[in-house]
Amino acid sequence: MSAIAIQLPEEVTAARDGILAFAEQEVIPRHEANRALFENPRALYREDGRFSDPLLALIREVRTESARAGFYQMCVPESLGGGGLGHLAYYVAWEALFHRCGPQNWLMLYALSHWAFGPSRLLTQITAEAQEKILSGLMAGTASMCFGLSEPNAGSDASMIGTRATKDGDGWRISGRKIWTSNAPVADYCVVFAVTDPERAAAKKGGISAFLVPTDTAGFTVQRVIKLFGHIGGDEAELALEDVYVESWQVVGELHQGFGAALYGVSLGRIYNSARAVGYGRWAVELALDYASTREAFGNAIADYQGVTFPLAESATELHAAHLMGINAAMLLDQGSPAIKELSMAKAYSVQAGYRAVDQAMQTHGAMGFTNELGLTDAWHSLRIVNVADGTNEILNRTIAQRLLKGDVEL
User: By the number of CB atoms within 10 A of the CB, which of 75, 101, 275, 344 ranks highest?
Assistant: First the structure.
């Protein structure tokens, strides 16, 4: 029985159930069959911190199998050959995957096309020539991409990007630096954002363009893999672009108007991270409830003590609210609303609620909560990151306040 009274469309529930069945059949068994790989960081990563070849092979298997089954590209617009499902299906499917698989069966990250790693509505803005060159590989899951927006001196205020693209005949030369570019160490393509009209960019009236750049282009370099939380490898990278030449077919969307594409990508990231937080939070609370029901102290199951269960009840309450907020924001987007305030609220609230839920689940487990085998620390790390990714909570609160002050006070 669902706690959500909103009647989800049949195509959304069918997509959710289908991708969960795919995870049961194709994702979780791969983790079980390769436990020695996943439990050994030195086997997961190369010396330079990139994913190892055995891991890359498993990632590609999940992507291509999901693509063949029609799940990987199910939220991609029909005009690109996808299933045409919208933001609601995207949110519901991701929440269900994170809830069911938890942080330990993380190959599920590649069962559904992530907005920055694979095909999405963003690709409707690339040229016909670009679609002909790259779309089939991305749709089939044999190729992947990344999103080059953030820079060492341009994080929350993306308008401050310093990467420049200057005209060179019929094409452009791009030079600059990018950082925090997820999937960049293994991506085949990167959507790079660069200033093409410095005066307009300085006045915040456009002047930023997006370019589709194959990562094997001369001058495009992954300088280093960024390692987090003491891990020996990772999937974030710092990029250098030195006089990278691109042709006119590689422009994404309208010249000088690339910031709109950037904002849309960030919006998709906020939906994704809202779903991730709720899914992981639900997984963690359920794990803690099971543990509290069986673990005994002072002659009783610790679930009998209010000090244990009341905090979990509070987490469940917050997650329920976050779940509703995420569904509502996704539905508003599908209805054509920009939902700037509502999406900002959903993301900011969800990632904090999910993080608190995982932290409380760790507390419920006591010392066991810190062990590798439970996976709670992996979820904790993930949700700590998304309190910053795709808009910090402070930036989101600023956006919410600005919308309210402009008269957008419907709550």
Answer: 275
